[in-house]
Amino acid sequence: DVNWVKRMPMDTHRLVPRIYKPCPALQSVVISYAVASNAYPNTIIMNQPAFPTQYLIFYPHLPQTYSHDAKNFHSLSREIFVGPFTKQVYLISEPSAPLIIVRLLPGYLHRLTRIPMHEVLNQPVDGADGFTTEVKRVNERLSFAKTEDQMIQLIEAFLLKRIQTVKDALPIDHTFNLVIADPNRYSIDQLADLSCVSVRQYERQFLERIGTSPTMFIRQARFMNAMRLRRIRPELNWSAIAYECGYFDQMHLIRDFKAFTSTTPNSFKTWVFGPATNA
After folding, report:
1. What residue ranges in 105-172 does DSSP mark as E strands?
2. Residue 74, H or E segment
3. Strand partners, 100
4. pTM for this model (two decimals)
5. In sequence order, what are the beta bridge partners of 58?
6. How far apart are CA 146 and CA 70, in angstroms?
7. pLDDT digit string (tens) for 55-100?
């Protein structure tokens, strides 16, 4: 019922995650861990923009449900991985239902699962499909953990074992972080040169490891930076943000805003894990 969805609270002030840094041995794999739960007494709905991020997510007790259109919702598995999304997702969270988000470095999800990322475009995937049933045993242990530190330790033990068989990095893998750090600095020709391949080979490898085209990834990285800047400097107007983040003009930013959130800057109210925390 879309009308019921519209009446639900659209606010994440009580869903701000606690951020944890990975241990040194996993800093080339994991950007951060986030632990969050819905502290409201009621169910809430959230709009997650299409950022160029890759996640492994655990729901130790009750998973969220999701929808692309805020009309047809589907239950998630209790453990999922999330590859490329090029459109926003609506998520419904029940009260006091915790979740643990492992934010992976760009491209690492392919290396961990060996799944071509373009095959899972715009769809959350059951964790067992890429990580075997061991991921479900980890989640079962998470449901009995008494502290967030214990949760992180369980996940890190799983990942430390997993990376022993990970695919080797290619030169292209190093370019993903360059784009995230500065989406406007490099052309695709330059990124291909840095990867020691032709532009065509670069685009093919990019599709396998990221799941989208380099152009889409650059657009999403620029948009993520704009959202982060808005969160940490709310006094800036959208025209100033567009300029700071390398857009041609404000209308260029608005077009991306509509593409990745299905709304306009002035109408957008919430996101799941705020860019100000790098989540």
Report:
1. 125-126
2. strand 74-75
3. 35, 58
4. 0.87
5. 79, 100
6. 34
7. 999 999 989 899 988 888 899 999 999 999 999 998 888 877 889 9
